[in-house]
Amino acid sequence: MSTQPKNFGFGEDETMLRDSARKFFTDNCSADKLHGLVATDPDIHRSIDSVWDKDLWQQIVDLGWTAVCVPESAGGIGMPAVAAVALAEEAGRAAFPSPMLSTFNATFVLNNCQSEAASQALGEIASGKATTLAITDQAGSWDSLNTDVGVNSDGSLSGTAYFVQDAGKVEQLVVSAKSSAGIGLYLVDVQAAGVEMIADGIIDLTRDQAHVVFSNASATEMAAPGTGNEIIDKAMPAILSIVSADMVGAGEWLLQTTIEYAKTRVQFDRPLGFFQAVKHPLVNVMLDIDRSKSLAYNAACAYDTDPDNAMGFAHMAKSQAGEMAVFSSSRAVQFHGGIGFTWECYVHLFFKRQMHNQVLYGDAKYHRALLADKVMGAAA
Asked: Strand, helix or coil at 157?
């Protein structure tokens, strides 16, 4: 029996937060401004840079968005996960370059640490200290028992964390590291001695990624060895909800932009939208987005109110959103015709963000397989 509140617990406060975010991104991050910020150089051999507007990030901090899911006891606002999902959806709709979503994901992990050090780190996040997760190994696994980082006898860290999101924008990392006692979680300052960021080349122009090499880097323990894997597992439904919501927002932008183009572009003396071969697939995109949105909010709500079912709901959300991301992107490019393939057309910014998101923390097939194992039992 579900214990979730009606409307996924999305009340007046969450609605006001979403509406203010939508206005903020409309005013400050139009597609035109975004393209001018991150897509000035089409050369495939350009340098790998982390491009973002730090002034806008400071405005977000001043608005209190980084404190949204930080508990009140740590200096935050203490809103439910659906509030962060609403912000993630609006950020996706603008393809906004910032460490906001990575900071949310780190917040959910730290919330589950239940330690004094984690509470202090959460207070720093509430004050605007951008943070990201460094929990993935070289094979691309973020499974809570896999890490290529080890804890030295003096408590420092050595090894490498891979696929670290927004590494060029953050001030600190939540690192998964292994000792003889098991997996623990540690906070590391990116400016600390023994920390080296090596940027990865990715297709998404609105974000950056890196692998981080630790060489006897000093670290503060957030969760004791042997508990880190369980904490990551508890936070994962919220993390998957955030990524899914980002895809929902980008899908909504792609759909609306393509609809507007189909209304104005004339072919054979008719607007493109007149033809069934165009309008029927766009309706299917709309339906896919609606399903993805409901599942993302459902998973986020379950994280707070129905934890026993949250992971299953999160698998559903991420698998549906991943497929929607591919479908919405491909239809947007195709229905923009020849211009849809060009660098000057803004569609490619959202297309690339969708392609990055759909594989981040597992694609649709991966999550369907995990859901099948959960429902029917793992294959022998």
From this structure: strand
Q: How far is residue 26's CA from residue 15's CA, in Å, rounded to a whole number?
A: 17
Tokens encoding 14:
């969450």
- DSSP state string for 182-233: EEEEEEEETTSTTEEEEEEP-S-TT--EEEEEEEEE--EEEE-TTTHHHHHH
Contact predicate 174/187, CB 8 Å: yes
Identify the bridge partners of residue 199 per DSSP, sorted by sequence position: 210
- Residue 172 near residue 321, CB atoms below 8 Å: no
More confident residue, 256 or 378: 256
The H-or-E segment that residue 355 falls in is helix 347-359
Please write the tens of the pLDDT for every residue from 310-321: 999 999 999 999
Helix (H) or strand (E) holding 238: helix 228-264
pTM score over 0.90: yes
Give yes or no for a contact between 225 and 182, defined as CB atoms under 8 angstroms apart: yes
pLDDT at 144 over 90: no
Largest CA distance in the chain: 75
| Measured distance CA(77)–CA(156) in Å, rounded | 33
- CATH number belonging to domain 6-130: 1.10.540.10
Mean pLDDT, range 134-139, rounded to an integer: 94
> Each residue of 68-118: pLDDT tens digit?
999 999 999 999 999 999 999 999 999 999 999 999 999 999 999 999 999
Confidence of residue 2 (pLDDT cuts 50, 70, 90): low
Output 149 or 8, whichever has higher pLDDT: 149
In terms of CATH, what superfamily is 132-227? Butyryl-CoA Dehydrogenase, subunit A, domain 2 (2.40.110.10)
CA-to-CA dists, residue 321 to 147, 199, 201, 308, angstroms: 27, 27, 24, 22
Quote the CA–CA distance of 339 and 319 in Å, as a whole number.
Answer: 30
Domain 229-376 adopts which CATH fold? Answer: Butyryl-CoA Dehydrogenase, subunit A; domain 3 (1.20.140)
Residue 238 tokens read as 């919220």
